[in-house]
Amino acid sequence: MSSAADAPGPVVLRTAGLTKSFRGLVALREHAIELREGEILGVIGPNGSGKSTFFNLITGFSRPDSGAIEFRGRSIVGVGTARIVGLGIARTFQGSRLFGSLSVAENILAAAQLRHPVGPVAAVLRGPRYRAHAREAETIAARLLNLMGLASQADRPAVDLPYGDQRRLEIARALATEPTLLLLDEPAAGLNSGETRALTALIRRIRDLHGVTVVVVEHDMDLIMNLCERIQVLATGEVICVGSPEAVRSHPRVREAYLGHA
Ligand code: ADP
Ligand code: MG
């Protein structure tokens, strides 16, 4: 491999001393990570260890008590959810947040329009700017339907999709906002092992095609070990270790605190 390929890319996300409590309970304590462009980081830990809190802090759903969050070198502490999407950070949620009565294509279009907003005045006038944005959103949606294997389902109401397809649609919606940082909260939850393997390959393909940086919170150890270049382990809000899959697998506190109960 060439030295250029080995050279670390720019830092996309950096947290330091990131701390969040809820009524005296510390959900995340002194969290620190530095993510490089194109990297796939896994975050594991038992229920209640602070994984979703980490995502909520980065995406403006929750405000830290203290600590730094930088996206491409710029602080995003206090930045609201809509502006976070505009900056290029997208996420999925642990539970489904699909618009059940909208079609698959409409779910993706709605998300694409978050990144290519059609202002109320422009929408009324249906002017060239509106048409350009609408066309852009439609192009993005069509591309994503194909990428995610959902093209044949485009016109079905999201609620009628098989469960595995719904999970992929949630990722498609996040991608529709054209993120450079993608946060996936338990994307394999409820999938069987075949579906999980296919999802693992798909996430890697998304990274390879789009060059996005990915953080995956997940309980499924096969997905984590096969997909992630680095893994961070949390327990009761604290970072226990971060390292390669091999290093994490053999870490004594990880075996004891998490893998033993997985
Ligand atoms: P994980 O995603 O690893 O299961 P969470 O980040 O959801 O864990 O939660 C970490 C801890 O913070 C848990 O004890 C949880 O009950 C608590 N917590 C998370 N969000 C809130 C909230 N909005 N209000 C109160 N407590 C919360
Ligand atoms: Mg969670």
In short:
Residues 13-261 form the ABC transporter domain. The protein is α/β, with parallel strands linked by helices and 262 residues long.
Bound molecules: adenosine-5'-diphosphate, magnesium ion
Number of helices: 11
Please count the beta strands (DSSP E, at least 2 residues each): 10
Largest sheet, in brief, is: 6 strands, mixed
How would you explain this protein's 3D organization?
GO terms for molecular function: ATP binding. Residues 13-261 form the ABC transporter domain. It holds the Pfam family ABC_tran. Keywords: ATP-binding, Nucleotide-binding, Transport. This is Branched-chain amino acid transport system ATP-binding protein. The chain is α/β, with parallel strands linked by helices and 262 residues long. The chain is 41% helix and 24% strand. The chain is built from eleven helices and ten strands. It has helices spanning 3-6, 51-58, 81-87, 104-115, 120-125, 128-147, 163-176, 193-210, 221-227, 245-249, 252-257, and strands at residues 11-22, 25-36, 40-44, 66-71, 74-75, 89-91, 181-185, 213-217, 230-235, 238-243. Helix 8 (193-210) packs parallel to helix 9 (221-227). The two termini are 36 Å apart. The mean pLDDT is 90. Adenosine-5'-diphosphate is lined by residues 22, 25, 27, 45, 47-53.
Q: What features would you highlight for this structure?
A:
six-stranded mixed sheet, 262 residues, nucleotide-binding, ATP binding, BCA_ABC_TP_C, binds magnesium ion, binds adenosine-5'-diphosphate, alpha/beta, globular, four-stranded antiparallel sheet
